[in-house]
Amino acid sequence: MRYLAWLLLAANLGMLAWLLTQPQPQPVAYRPIPVPPGVQPLLLLSERSANSAAAAGRALAEPPPSSPPPPLPQSSSTETPPQAAPLPGAASGPGAPESDSPGETPPPVVERNAVCLAMGPLMAESEAKTLDAQLSAAGYRPHLRIGEARNPAGYWVYMPAMPASEARRIVAELDARGMTDYFIGSQNYISLGIFSVKSKARTRLEQIRALGFDAILDQRYRTRKVYWIDIEPAEKPLLVSEVWSQIQAQRPELRLQRVSCE
Fold first, then answer.
1. What is the Cα–Cα distance from 4 to 10, expressed in whole angstroms?
2. d(CA 36, CA 34)
3. Most CB atoms closer than 10 Å: which of 22, 63, 229, 250?
């Protein structure tokens, strides 16, 4: 056993001596990977700091640049360089405001969503033209406009539209009962009378329903042509003008409405 231990110790010492006599391996050389033209290679923060310090050292070591040469002597001529011609419409004096040339008037500002007045309604065209001329003479800008008015025109008792065979049957029964005051209109509606007083129309309605027919009582309207005068806004409001006082004294039934000027 003792000889075996001495033998292992001698082998370890021989291995250590052999390792110490071997040459040290050289580190692998770093070869940067080529990059395309125009692309800056990546630098570590330590490398960037070292490069900055080296550049600063070179700047301190370099001598300062020489002073620029003295300027050439100027000519004794008193000629001044030509100045650029001013733009059309530009002010010539110092501190002049940037605006159009004198004499030009800026375009008028058009007010959107302006409110006009409509005077009416007038039933006769001659009356409308007379008022139009009266307003124009007073300095206003009137425009004649044609419209429609729907006015009540009595009461109507009738049976609504129905098939032609049904209308012929009802008319035959009305004739048989002595009620001949009717009229068959388009789409086979049956008119049973037009009345100016509602009480008379209701009496006729009750007579028809007593015979077993279902009739309707309705308001009747008549549409007719009317005239309006549209007046554009002016410096003097129309409501406080003398011409409106004269028109009201002559035609108190006329009224004014606010309408859009568009």
1. 10
2. 7
3. 229
Please give the angle made by the CA atoms of 94, 99 and 100, to the nearest 5 degrees.
Answer: 120
CA-to-CA distance for 124 and 130, rounded, in angstroms? 10
Residues 211 and 162 in one domain: yes
Count of all residues that appear for the chain in the document:
262
Is there a single domain that holds both residue 218 and residue 156?
yes
How much is the pTM? 0.42
Q: How many CB atoms neighbour CB 171 within 10 A?
A: 16
pLDDT tens-digit map of 117-165: 999 999 999 999 999 999 999 999 999 999 988 888 899 999 999 999 9
Kindly report, residue by residue over 202-229, the tens digit of the pLDDT: 999 999 999 889 999 999 998 999 999 9
What does DSSP assign to residue 241? Answer: S
